[in-house]
């Protein structure tokens, strides 16, 4: 690795992971240390990434894929205590204790609150999309072609490091379902789901068995769908659903309005929502730089889940399945910073491969959600123990325990799980109750901390 | 220009214009003449371009923008006699006389019927997207980077000519409307409109005043929408609409479900369909090769409406507003072929500029639809008179006259205009009547020529 503080670093994306990377460097800079030159390219006109809600679907005003997958009434689907920055608490941001489950507006406000503390916004080129990255082996440098979307002008800049911080919840994975082309009404992917009220009084077929399916079923239930059928591929979500929501194995085919299920039953639907997940999608990277991975807890091409093994000056943030999110990004970005600055030794290729294989072997033993959570907790521990990120083992274990309690609570009460309160492992503060049960909140006038 | 029959030509897109270009060369080849090497890159898995209907919206299975903007029940919106190949008649293809207005399936069948006559399919690389084109000034050659979507592998090939045949009805133009983010239901662009039955019983707001707005209003009317309000920017379509369809000037803002209009009225809607047109969108071309144009009848960077003035070995097909379509593509592609082969002299830059300015001056005088049609007829005449494409002046003038009759007929009877019959200027054949009036056809079992 090249440890110069004089390096040039490109960060692609000013969402939570890119902002976290800038935070890590900004803290050093504010303590008077020299940091590398950072340029962040962001295709949107503001920072916040996925947390910038948009009414648009498909393509934006410049013909770029719309990044956002958020819906109007999205609330966090895990307690905020599981997604707390160790160096910037919810208490600090909101100046009081707030409920454990919060709407997207509040979550965005919290993330951007920390970003605004530093002056890293000056490093960001907004409305600028990275269209191509290749590594020049001769000059040992990355050529990054970017395009200013407002002027339409492209140009190439060179960098010593490229940090891919574009997330992996933006490009829909849309499998073909036999006969779906005969369905006479709306078929959308969860990426394009914006407002559950559109589905009031409808019979909805939700295809998928993971978190999107679960939450979109809840959303459409809350806003008055007549019935929701969740059709899962691998296994049912298995909650105690209300009578309007049922789970069925993956349909075998559509025929007009009718879905046929493996048990021989069939049922008519008014709309189909594909909750079939997202792709890791990096069309802007040259073939030899492109991470190829399924959804897993340890992408096999990434040392420490971060550094591209074949070219470790190419860095990927947050490409894992995420139990932890903000603190996982921080754990990674503090580590990245310290590797770039030479504070953490960077082993040779074989040593890295051995470390990666050890983690992959460990990952293969994951059998259920709790194993996966333990795996990710151990992963965070390894990263944070190498840096000054203030998430010590005790706090991290506390957060993991809260996560487990929450998973239990959700399983026992899927409809009302967002009304529970948890305590922060960072500050010790117990969340307050919502003034209104989540199922009854349909606007934010009753959310007093907004 | 380089006139070698040994040139290598890249065609981007195997839709109607790309297929037309291959046809032009194939005809020469089948008469024993040597033709250049042609490689056509097509991102879909079949030829037909826009005419390949898809249930998908947004992104395809590879994360590429879905090309298709067609809807299930789309029928031609002009008589087939205005869109007839001069060298391959509808009579020939269907072996009988068929009605003037035909569903998309029949139109696709006709287009592909001609394509299947040649063996040009061997030139096409399917599932292959062109991701970048740049011109190497030193070697005087185009570098074309393509990606095989099924393998994910990219590679670069060099070409003497690049023909851009990707159309301009695929990338939606989506303007912001004040308050649209507060609308609690579905907002789609016509690009994503697939099935009018989804809007049955709904009050629809159609934003736009051109052909998409007109036809989507008719579609939703036919399939049972409660009401349709067309909100136009420039001027009303001005047909004699049935009482369920009304036209209003461009709304000033949305507020929840309610659209506010300049006359002070407001009205609630269940869905919004943006018929706001498409962008000329060529993100795969280096800045210096990219056509920048609005919708017009003579893009000012294209000599003969075809050859990119700054680099005339870069060729654009069908980038004009289209009254004529298939015959316009043929007029262009026969001309392109003969320029490449040195059969048509290619003037120097100044001479080209003078010719372009003369056409632009003429275009500026267009005041209405009839002027525009006359302009495009004259444009076709100039092109076809230089080649052996069998569209003589008499036939072309006949087709133009049919177009004018049709425009009159449509204006006087918007609901039933598709039940009219016209005569072919190519064969003289008069179309037969539909067995069922268009307004009553809701499946194709009654369309006996399919």
From TrEMBL, chains A, B:
InterPro entries: FAD/NAD-bd_sf, Flavin_mOase, Flavin_mOase-like, FMO-like
Enzyme Commission designation: 1.-.-.-
Name of the protein in its database record: Flavin-containing monooxygenase
Organism: Daphnia pulex
Needed cofactors: FAD
Any one GO MF annotation of this record: NADP binding
Coiled-coil segments: none
Main EC class the enzyme belongs to: oxidoreductase
UniProt entry keywords in alphabetical sequence: FAD, Flavoprotein, Monooxygenase, NADP, Oxidoreductase
Pfam name, any one: FMO-like
Record-stated family: Belongs to the FMO family.
Top-level taxon: Eukaryota
């Amino acid at each position: 690795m090249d440890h110069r503080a004089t390096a040039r670093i490109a960060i692609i994306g000013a969402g939570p992971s890119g902002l976290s990377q800038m935070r890590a460097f900004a803290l050093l800079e504010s303590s008077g240390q020299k940091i590398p030159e950072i340029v962040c390219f962001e295709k949107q006109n503001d920072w916040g990434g996925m947390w910038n809600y948009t009414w648009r679907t498909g393509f934006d005003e410049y013909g770029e894929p719309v990044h956002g997958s958020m819906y109007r009434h999205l609330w966090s689907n895990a307690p905020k205590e599981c997604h707390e920055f160790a160096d910037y608490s919810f208490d600090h941001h909101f100046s009081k204790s707030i409920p454990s489950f919060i709407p997207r507006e509040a979550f965005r406000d919290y993330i951007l609150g920390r970003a605004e503390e530093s002056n890293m916004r000056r490093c960001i080129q907004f409305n600028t999309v990275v269209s191509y990255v290749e590594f020049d082996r001769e000059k040992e440098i990355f050529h990054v072609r970017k395009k200013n979307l407002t002027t339409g002008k492209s140009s190439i800049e060179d960098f010593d490091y490229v940090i891919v911080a574009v997330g992996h919840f933006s490009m829909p994975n849309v499998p073909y379902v036999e006969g779906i082309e005969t369905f006479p009404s709306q078929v959308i992917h969860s990426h394009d789901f914006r407002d559950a009220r559109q589905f009031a009084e409808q019979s909805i077929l939700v295809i998928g068995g993971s978190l999107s399916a679960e939450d979109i079923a809840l959303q459409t239930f809350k806003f008055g769908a007549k019935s929701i059928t969740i059709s899962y591929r691998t296994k049912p979500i298995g909650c105690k659903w209300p009578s309007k929501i049922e789970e069925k194995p993956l349909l075998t085919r559509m025929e007009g309005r009718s879905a046929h299920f493996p048990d021989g039953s069939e049922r008519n639907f008014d709309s189909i929502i594909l909750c079939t997940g997202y792709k890791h999608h990096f069309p802007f990277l040259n073939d030899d730089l492109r991470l190829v991975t399924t959804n897993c807890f340890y992408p096999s091409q990434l040392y420490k889940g971060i550094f591209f093994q074949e070219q470790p000056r190419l860095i990927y943030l947050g490409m894992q399945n995420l139990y932890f999110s903000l603190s996982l990004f921080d754990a990674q970005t503090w580590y990245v910073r310290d590797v770039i600055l030479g504070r953490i030794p960077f082993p040779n290729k074989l040593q890295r491969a051995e470390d990666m294989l050890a983690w992959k072997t460990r990952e293969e033993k994951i059998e259920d959600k709790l194993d996966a959570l333990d795996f990710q907790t151990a992963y965070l521990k390894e990263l944070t123990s190498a840096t000054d990120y203030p998430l010590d083992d005790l706090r991290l274990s506390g957060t993991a325990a809260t996560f487990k309690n929450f998973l239990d609570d959700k399983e026992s009460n899927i409809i009302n799980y967002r009304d529970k309160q948890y305590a922060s492992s960072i500050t010790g503060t117990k969340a307050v109750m919502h003034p209104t049960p989540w199922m009854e909140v349909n606007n934010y006038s009753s959310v007093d901390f907004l």
